[in-house]
Amino acid sequence: SNAKILKQVEKMIKDGATIIDIGGYSSRPGADNIAEKIELDRVIPTLKDCKKYFPETFFSIDTFRSKVAEECIYNGADIINDISGGNLDSNMMKVVGKHQIPYVIMHMKGNPSNMVKKAKYDDIIGELISYFSKKIDDAGKANIKDIIIDPGFGFGKNIEDNYKVLKELNLFQSLEKPIMVGLSRKSMIYKVLNISPQEALNGTTVLNTIALEKGANILRVH
């Protein structure tokens, strides 16, 4: 219910969140594809309420669909957070560029339903850096001024890959863009420690600290 959502948002803001990320499409591994209309029906009312009650807070929309992004921008969204970096909707960068709002470009191999099968790399760091270089170039051509990059921990990457990216995170500073990381309660923490996601807070804190030391600018947490 919206009252429950608003309570949660209020708690996050009190806990120090600067940006609230709203998504209506689950992108966890193996997630089902849902219709655009369902995604809009989930996101728009929530965004409207949030903007009304928390006008000072920045709201980011987690979507890979340009139509959802544009509707949300018309309803006050401040940032578009695209797990596919424009790969799942060729119109996305054009929409974001037109409205001049910041754009988070994440790296993912494949899409949520098949990314687990696609987790194979010869040189993961090289592959990610060349992916981001090209995406930053594309975004610039689409007139997007503010670009944030997200290496996409857990998206089409196995545990070993994830730790390699974390270890070498400082190399992404060469792209000269803010770096966002989402490590919170992911399987790379709880599977290694053999605990449940609920018990993964300490592990999350440790990995977030390492990420900050290696140049992360934004932490996406639950």
Key structural traits:
222 residues, alpha/beta, 5-stranded parallel beta sheet
Describe this structure in words.
This protein is an alpha/beta fold. The chain has 8 helices and 7 strands. It has helices at residues 2-14, 36-53, 66-74, 92-99, 124-141, 159-167, 187-193, 201-213; strands at residues 19-23, 58-62, 79-82, 103-106, 147-150, 180-181, 218-219. The strands form 2 sheets. It has a 5-stranded parallel β-sheet. A two-stranded parallel sheet has the order 6-7. β3 (79-82), α4 (92-99) and β4 (103-106) form a beta-alpha-beta unit. The radius of gyration is 17 Å and the shape is globular. The protein starts with a helix and ends with a strand.
Rg, Å, rounded: 17 Å
Helicity range of the residues? 40-55%
Order of helices and strands: HEHEHEHEHEHEHHE
Indicate the overall shape.
globular
Strand content: 5-15%
Note the main sheet: 5 strands, parallel
- Lateral strand order in the biggest sheet: 1-2-3-4-5
Q: Mean pLDDT across all residues, rounded?
A: 95
Q: Could you say which structural class the secondary elements and strand pairing correspond to?
A: alpha/beta
Q: Uncertain regions: pLDDT < 50 for 5+ in a row?
A: none
Number of strands: 7
Distance between the termini: 18 Å
Number of H/I helices = 8
